[in-house]
Amino acid sequence: MRHGRRLFAITFLMPAVAVYAVFVISPYLQAFQVSATNWRGLSPTWDYVGTENFTRLLSDEYFWNALKHNAVLLAVLPIATIALGLFFASMLSIGGHGGRAGVQGIRGSGVYRIVYFFPQVLSVAIVGVLWREMYAPDGGLVNGFLRAVGLGTLARPWLGSEDFAFWAVLIVMIWSNVGFYVVLFGAAMGAIPREIYEAALLDGAGRFVTLLRITIPLLWDTIQVAWVYLAIIALDGFALVQIITNGGPNFSTDVVGLRLYNTAFGDSKFGYASAIGVAMFFIVLSVAIASLRLTRRERVEY
């Protein structure tokens, strides 16, 4: 009987494993192979150059400039997104007044959840084009709003400025991601017994203390997963940057994903681009492992 079950499971698993091996594992292995060549993408022939591409990578100022931008995203995006997600989710779940010991969400919380989640319905391309038009110097919503409230002196070509373009794109990344984590954290908070919050409020704990001392410890596993996902997004960032600024002005918003794309399809250096991809593979893997280890803590039961 046990042998029959094992054969049954293998029969259904093998097609999925085969598809995964062909379309996921195989491209990874091919990328490692191509990274050791000087292949230009169109030629059917190439020469093996060993570690030459990786040696060149160490002195590539454009790569390090892009990696620096990814590092800033890694430092800011997860913290800002998780902080906003926890704040909004807390307000929607336990931030209202009235009810049992005042523990309920604010009025209209269901509508707010839809509004926050709405960016997730839009494709990355739509989000990028939308915000690119909003940042337009003339006729853009951002500068139009500043002029309407009497702050016209603050209006500027946001995406044309080396000082502001990167931060403008970062705001878009936070805006486009925070809604998902509002819903995710809100669902996790819904599983926390209300009696815990009632006891805290009766003991005189404020909203901030409740969030810090109760909600965050009980949601730590969810926050840990969110941190890893956002770290991976921060180390990518290709789609929005490519659509909104294409790395400009003067490479001030360049990221490694866009550097890889331009190297491969712009400069026709697929071997060197594959080396960039392999380097990013190990960087992302290292960051994910480090995030899981550094944020690991004892599970809080309730």
TrEMBL record:
Pfam families registered for this protein in UniProt: BPD_transp_1
PROSITE patterns: ABC_TM1
Keyword Cell membrane: yes
Keyword Transport: yes
Primary location recorded for the protein, binned into one broad class: membrane
Membrane topology: Multi-pass membrane protein
Limits of the ABC transmembrane type-1 domain: 67-291
Cellular compartment(s): Cell membrane
TM region(s), chain numbering: 7-29, 71-94, 114-131, 164-187, 226-245, 270-292
Domain of life of the source: Bacteria
Alphabetical list of Gene3D superfamilies matching this protein: MetI-like
Keywords: Cell membrane, Membrane, Transmembrane, Transmembrane helix, Transport
Family that this chain belongs to: Belongs to the binding-protein-dependent transport system permease family.
Name of the protein this chain belongs to: Sugar ABC transporter permease
Organism whose genome encodes this protein: Dactylosporangium salmoneum
